[in-house]
Write a structure and sequence with these properties.
heterodimer; A: about 250 residues; Rossmann fold; B: about 70 residues; alpha+beta; two-stranded antiparallel sheet; 4 strands; binds thiamine diphosphate; binds iron/sulfur cluster; binds magnesium ion
Chain lengths: ~250, ~70
């Protein structure tokens, strides 16, 4: 028998601290495998966020830099401009990217920085105990909207892919999900493509990944996958919002 | 012939592997815990494994290896 699935060398042996069934771990694997398969492990530099993924610097087997809350795209900009031959990727949650860091997010995209953003949308502030995020769904409960998000008081969820797709510079923008095997395989394709586009010098790439937070959604892990499939992806429809290669480069 | 190996030290007993397996190969133990206090995933019908790796694809902790 031959091994058909083993852990990628682009992840370290450190046990991840994520809660049971949290799909942050799946996305770590997809990013790591993609870098390994592209043969870019010696060129990769990752930026870790503030949020549950704060320890990402311990998990990825490449150079990593921690950024202050929300500032990862600015840090990535500096690193990429100083070291343009490196593969610079950013891993950020929705509170980090779409709340405190929205300015950095929009301006890095508008400038068309040659970086790849992996955006983890779990529609909640996970690390700090389940406060409402800019992406919290209408009606979804959080500690700061205990009866469910009410648009009259809390406004509406921000769809970051759609928002960034109004800008001219981004080369590639796609939203994917971790809700089941089929979607995880599609997410892998999108992440690998986004990283490859950067390596080929094409420009800014952004992949939003719907991720579960069983702990703060107060759900069992399997139930949380179902919630993503039935609820989260209705507010955040999956798909490609920008592809300047127009799919000609399908791989 | 196909086989999976579950790294019980890393397993968090989340059940995403068992949920993804089309052949009901995996189940969460009702009595065996690892050092972290999680009821670990274990093979209950190993002979049914087809090596599709769906379990490994859904495992957030890379606890599963698949051979075929
Ligand atoms: C400047 C600053 N403000 C606030 C915080 C507190 N804080 C830490 S993580 C976090 C939110 C993280 O949520 P998200 O980015 O969605 O990541 P998740 O944990 O959900 O993956 C906040 C507000 C901080 N660390 N620094
Ligand atoms: S709090 Fe939520 S996002 Fe954070 S590790 Fe736990 S399940 Fe994952
Ligand atoms: S490889 Fe496929 S059949 Fe075998 S245990 Fe995993 S999911 Fe089940
Ligand atoms: S998916 Fe992984 S961590 Fe979860 S129960 Fe299965 S082997 Fe354990
Ligand atoms: Mg979040």
């Amino acid at each position: 028998m031959a091994k058909v699935f083993t852990k990628t060398k682009m992840l370290t042996d450190v046990h991840m601290h994520y809660c049971p069934g949290c799909t942050h771990g799946i996305v770590h694997r997809l990013v790591a495998e993609s870098i390994e398969e592209l043969g870019l492990q010696d060129k990769a530099i990752g930026i870790a966020p503030v949020g549950c993924a704060v320890f990402a610097y311990d998990y990825f087997n490449c150079d990593m830099q921690e950024a202050a809350h929300g500032r990862a795209p600015a840090v990535a900009t500096g690193i990429k401009r100083c070291l343009p031959d490196r593969l610079v990727f950013v891993y950020q949650g929705d509170g980090d990217l779409a709340s405190i860091g929205m300015a950095e997010t929009v301006h890095a995209a508008a400038r068309g920085e040659h970086i790849t953003i992996i955006f983890i949308n779990n529609s909640i502030y996970g690390m700090t105990g389940g406060q409402m995020a800019p992406t919290t769904l209408i009606g979804q409960k959080a500690t700061t909207c205990q009866n469910g998000r009410d648009p009259a008081v809390n406004g509406y969820p921000i769809r970051v892919c759609e928002l960034l797709a109004t800008l001219d510079a981004p080369y590639y923008i796609e939203r994917v999900s971790t809700q089941d095997v089929k979607h995880v395989l599609a997410a892998k394709k999108a992440i690998k493509k986004a990283l490859r586009f950067q390596a080929e010098g094409r420009g800014y790439s952004f992949v939003e990944v719907l991720v579960s937070c069983p702990t703060n959604w107060h759900m069992k892990p399997v139930e949380a996958l179902r919630f993503m499939a039935e609820e989260t992806s209705r507010t955040f429809p999956l798909g490609v919002f920008r592809d300047k290669s127009e799919g000609r480069e399908e791989k | 012939m196909a086989n999976i190996t579950i790294d019980e030290k890393v397993c968090k007993g989340c059940g995403l592997c068992a949920n993804a397996c089309p052949k009901n190969v995996i189940s969460l133990s009702k009595h065996r815990m690892n050092a972290n206090g999680y009821f670990v995933a274990e093979k209950v019908n190993p002979q049914n494994c087809i090596g599709c790796a769906f379990c490994a694809i859904m495992c957030p902790d890379c606890a599963i290896e698949v051979e075929k």
